[in-house]
């Protein structure tokens, strides 16, 4: 079994998707290839990518156990915006027809016995009916009369009506006829016909001025009037009800919805996402994690080789240039080199340089980096000593001269401090001078030893040792320079003593005046007490007078 289809045409749109669907019950192998075309560059492989789609057989077996059909496999491919085709989704689907029972709303005229309301709606209807009954009971209870006098009044009115009715029962038919005539008779007062509707029937039955026939006529008149009033009241009540009905929204009875059970066929979809694994069979393959790591290691290896090659070239140039430097130094600066070397040393260095040069063009042509580094160290060890002794011929005397100049400045500074900084004692200055003598003594001894030594031997002392001899001396001079002079004592003059005596005299006078003022205030306080009492005594009658005035008011 195989299937072939062209998904994406040449020079077509990108960023689109296409799906291939087929019914199958086994795992699938799928591949994407180029179609043979003259557009492809020569030598381009047709194979792009292969896919192993699994999970179809397992899903088909599960569906077979449920007695369902074979799965429908869908493979979705995408042409990305970069122009790369790939399988992005694979799934299998099986549809199953399932019978389900649903509640269907019945029509109002449907009389099928299967139409029944739902239990929830039944309960809601019962609750609503109970609530309506409760409201009606509450309304009826609120309309009952509560006052006892009104009940008694109604009873008396009922008794009066009963008596009037008893008198006119025998002449009911005649009075009715008389009433119809008397209603239009001139003997009937218009005021009666107008006010009859508002009068009580007991008024006419108990009236002594009316005769029997007049009473009957009146009674029948008002009976007819009562009937008319009753009809009018009925019409009025009807209009009132219609008005109330128009004023208030009509309460529509809630219809109970009824449902019946109906069986329907529905499709149930079984869906399974399939497992897709990709692989390649062509020469050109995308980078996997393993291939990426391998490529990185290769690149790092190439980079290391390039670095070693560059370092080897530098080492060759370094050795070759050092050989030429040795030869040129021995020839160009022969006189100075002779001062720090002997014949044996010069011949040894020259022979070493010649041998190295010859080795470079013969055995050293294919030598590695480590070999060239060893050759350079072999040349540098003897010749660097010669160069160092040669540099010390000039550097050592210059360092000694600079040291002597520095010591002379320190001696001048001590002489200057003797007058400008008398707080620095003679012992401290003597300690500095002793340090200077120690340094000069060290220089003199080492110069004698160096003069006695041979030039090709290692020097007794070097120029770098000379400045270190003044380290202790510098510390001592810096410490003394920061020493502060003591403050001069304050001297008391004659004017200062006179001012102090005047201040003491002024203080004594001020104390005497203060004592006198205090005594005067004490005396004044004693004299003022009787006067205050007297004023209080005068104020008391005034207060009594004010109280008396208040009493009069």
Describe this structure in words.
This protein is of the alpha+beta class and 553 residues long. It contains 14 helices and eight strands. A hairpin with a 5-residue loop joins strand 4 (72-79) and strand 5. The longest helix is centred in the last third of the chain and has 59 residues, at 494-552. The model is unreliable at 145-236, 238-251 and 518-553 (pLDDT under 50).
Q: What form results from the Cα inertia axes?
A: elongated
Q: Topology as H/E string?
A: EEEHEEEHHHHHHEEHHHHHHH
Task: Enumerate how many helices there are, as a single number.
Answer: 14
Lateral strand order in the biggest sheet: 1-4-5-7-6
Radius of gyration: 70 Å
User: What share of the residues lie within helices?
Assistant: 55-70%
- In terms of per-residue confidence, which ranges show pLDDT below 50 for 5 or more consecutive residues? 145-236, 238-251, 518-553
Number of strands: 8
For the structure shown, list the relevant keywords.
five-stranded antiparallel beta sheet; single chain; three-stranded antiparallel beta sheet; alpha+beta; 553 residues; elongated
Short description:
With 553 residues, the chain is of the alpha+beta class. It is 60% helix and 13% strand. It is built from 14 helices and eight strands.
Topology:
Elements: E1 16-23, E2 28-33, E3 47-54, H1 56-65, E4 72-79, E5 85-105, E6 116-117, H2 119-143, H3 148-168, H4 172-182, H5 190-195, H6 201-205, H7 212-247, E7 258-273, E8 275-279, H8 289-332, H9 334-340, H10 343-361, H11 369-420, H12 426-452, H13 471-481, H14 494-552
Antiparallel strand pairs: 1-4, 2-3, 3-8, 4-5, 5-7, 6-7
């Amino acid at each position: 079994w195989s299937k072939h289809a062209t998904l994406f045409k040449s020079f077509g749109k990108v960023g689109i998707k296409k799906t291939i669907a087929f019914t199958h019950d086994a795992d699938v192998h799928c591949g994407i290839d180029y179609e043979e075309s003259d557009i492809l560059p020569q030598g381009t492989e047709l194979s792009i990518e292969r896919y192993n789609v699994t999970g179809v057989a397992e899903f088909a077996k599960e569906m077979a156990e449920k007695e369902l059909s074979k799965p429908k496999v869908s493979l979705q491919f995408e042409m990305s915006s970069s122009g790369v085709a790939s399988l992005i989704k694979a799934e299998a689907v099986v549809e199953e027809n399932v019978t389900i029972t649903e509640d269907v709303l019945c029509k109002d005229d449907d009389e099928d016995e299967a139409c029944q309301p739902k239990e929830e709606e039944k309960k809601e209807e019962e609750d609503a009916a109970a609530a309506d009954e409760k409201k009606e009971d509450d309304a009826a209870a609120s309309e009952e009369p509560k006052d006892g006098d009104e009940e008694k009044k109604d009873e008396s009115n009922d008794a009066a009506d009963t008596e009037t009715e008893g008198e006119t029962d025998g002449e009911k038919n005649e009075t009715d006829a008389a009433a119809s005539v008397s209603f239009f008779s001139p003997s009937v007062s218009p005021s009666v016909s107008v006010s009859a509707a508002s009068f009580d029937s007991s008024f006419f039955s108990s009236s002594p001025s009316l005769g029997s026939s007049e009473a009957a006529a009146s009674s029948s008149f008002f009976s007819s009037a009562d009937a008319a009033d009753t009809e009018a009241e009925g019409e009025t009540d009807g209009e009132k009800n219609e008005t109330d009905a128009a004023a208030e929204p009509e309460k529509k009875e809630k219809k109970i919805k009824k449902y019946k059970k109906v069986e329907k066929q529905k499709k149930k979809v079984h869906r399974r996402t399939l497992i897709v694994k990709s692989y390649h069979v062509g020469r050109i393959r995308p980078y996997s994690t393993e291939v990426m790591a391998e490529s990185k290691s290769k690149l790092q290896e190439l980079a290391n080789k390039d670095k070693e090659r560059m370092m080897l070239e530098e080492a060759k140039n370094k050795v070759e240039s050092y050989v030429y430097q040795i030869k040129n130094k021995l020839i160009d600066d022969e006189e100075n080199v002779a001062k720090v070397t002997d014949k044996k040393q010069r011949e040894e260095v020259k022979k070493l340089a010649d041998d190295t040069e010859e080795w470079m063009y013969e055995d050293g042509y294919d030598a590695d980096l480590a070999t060239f580094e060893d050759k350079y160290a072999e040349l540098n060890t003897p010749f660097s000593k010669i160069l160092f002794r040669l540099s010390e011929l000039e550097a050592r005397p210059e360092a000694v001269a600079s040291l002597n100049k520095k010591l002379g400045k320190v001696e001048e500074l001590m002489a200057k401090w003797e007058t400008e900084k008398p707080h620095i004692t003679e012992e401290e200055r003597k300690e500095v001078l002793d340090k200077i003598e120690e340094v000069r003594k060290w220089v003199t001894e080492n110069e004698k030893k160096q003069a006695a030594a041979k030039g090709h031997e290692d020097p007794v002392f070097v120029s770098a040792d000379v400045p270190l001899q003044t380290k202790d001396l510098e510390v001592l001079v810096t410490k003394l320079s920061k020493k502060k002079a003591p403050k001069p004592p304050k001297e008391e003059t004659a004017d200062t003593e006179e001012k102090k005596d005047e201040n003491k005299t002024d203080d004594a006078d001020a104390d005497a005046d203060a004592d006198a003022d205090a005594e005067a205030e004490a005396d004044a306080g004693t004299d003022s007490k009787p006067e205050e009492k007297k004023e209080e005594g005068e104020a008391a009658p005034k207060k009594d007078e004010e109280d008396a005035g208040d009493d009069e008011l």
